[in-house]
Design brief:
three-stranded antiparallel sheet, Peptide Deformylase, alpha+beta, four-stranded antiparallel sheet
Length: about 200
């Protein structure tokens, strides 16, 4: 009986059927607009960055907590102290499938937040390019990435699943950020690393 319960709980957790926990709600509601970005240099941070993220429930996507999280992730990634082009849930301490990405492929290059996001397809040229990461400060690397992708994510307003074809640099950003949701860092994929002296 205990084994069956554990198995069901594990399946529910992996598929994201569990709602936001009190600890997750406290993290979202308790943080300032600028959230702390976890780094590999802290042992506890590093363990969380290597964990697998789970989906939000529909109820959570329509909650005030999700709206607050989305706003805080956007504020954090665009803050001059970070100055990033993308950030993922684990980087702010939340192992949920959500990323904020700057859309260089759209007019005005806006940022967007994409919950329950997944890479559905990868194709085209695999080209190495320079990458850095807010969670690996002080380093950069040359990482091979696909030039074309299809991502799927959930619209928090309609709860519809959206599928979108993306190419170029924005496709690279999505691949980097979605890797975070699977516990993968760019340094795991890099052909070479170097100290970033900027």
């Amino acid at each position: 009986m205990v084994i069956v319960f554990w198995a069901l709980a594990a399946c529910g957790s992996r598929s994201g059927q569990l709602g936001l926990t009190p600890a997750e709600k406290a993290l979202i509601n308790g943080s300032d607009s600028l959230m702390r970005v976890l780094t590999i240099y802290d042992r506890e941070d590093s363990l969380l960055l290597r964990d697998i993220s789970v989906d939000f429930t529909d109820k959570d996507l329509r909650s005030d907590e999700f709206k607050a999280l989305a706003a805080k992730m956007l504020y954090t990634v665009q803050d001059p102290s970070q100055d990033g082009v993308g950030i993922a849930g684990p980087q702010v301490g939340l192992n949920r499938r959500v990323v904020a990405v700057q859309r260089y492929d759209l007019p005005g290059e806006p940022f967007g937040v994409f919950p329950n996001v997944r890479l559905d397809s990868l194709w085209g040229e695999i080209t190495p390019g320079p990458e850095g990461c807010l969670s690996v400060p002080g380093w950069a690397g040359m990482v091979p990435r696909y030039s074309n992708i299809i991502v799927s994510y959930k619209d928090p307003l309609t709860l519809d699943t959206i599928r979108e074809r993306i190419e170029g640099f924005t496709a690279v950003i999505f691949q980097h950020e979605i890797d975070h949701l699977d516990g993968v860092l760019y340094i795991d994929r890099a052909d070479s690393l170097w100290v970033d002296v900027r």
